[in-house]
Amino acid sequence: MKKALLLVAIVCSFAACKKDKPATTNSVFGKWELRAIQSNLPNPTIQPAGNGDIYVFKSDSSYVRYLDNKIKSQGKFSIKITEVRDTIKGGTIYLTNPTYTDAFQIRPTTIVIGSSAADGPSYYYKKIK
Questions:
Q1: Whole-angstrom distance, CA of residue 109 vs CA of residue 118
Q2: To which H or E segment does residue 127 belong?
Q3: Pairwise CA distance, residues 123 & 10, whole Å
Q4: What is the 8-class DSSP label of residue 3?
Q5: Where are the beta strands (DSSP E) in 58-121?
Q6: Whether pTM exceeds 0.70
């Protein structure tokens, strides 16, 4: 009888467990379209969807940059993450063509390139694919 009760308790405990959803990882891979530009002014400049300013980051560390839906540049990229806070990862991004390094943040549905903290603009890109 004790074995039967123990078996019922074990089965019930497994049935009562619910699987947690895996944590969403902030991945840079995919297609990102510019949605806002923030300078040291209080209000960002909003960019409409379909504006053609797009980055495509691929898992082989290559990227393509589009302006007005035409290829502007392409090359290799690397990201160095130096800070993690909740769902935001920050660091630097390095692009090879043209050679360019800037501040970088990745959030669940947005990446930010640049930093308005040093009088430069921050470019907010929304993941579209």
A1: 24
A2: strand 122-127
A3: 53
A4: H
A5: 62-67, 70-85, 88-96, 99-106, 110-113
A6: yes
Tell me if 53 sits within 8 A of 66, measured CB to CB.
Answer: yes
Taking the C-alpha atoms of residue 123 and residue 33, their distance in angstroms, rounded to an integer, is 10
- Number of CB atoms found within 10 A of residue 41's CB: 10
Q: Do the beta carbons of residue 75 and residue 67 sit within 8 Å?
A: no
Helix (H, G, I), strand (E, B) or coil at 117: helix
Question: For position 45, what pLDDT does the model report?
Answer: 93
Average pLDDT by stretches of 10, the chain with 129 residues: 40 41 65 93 90 97 97 97 95 94 94 82 93
- The full DSSP string for 4-43 is HHHHHHHHHHHHH--PPPPPPP----EEEEEEEEE-SSSS
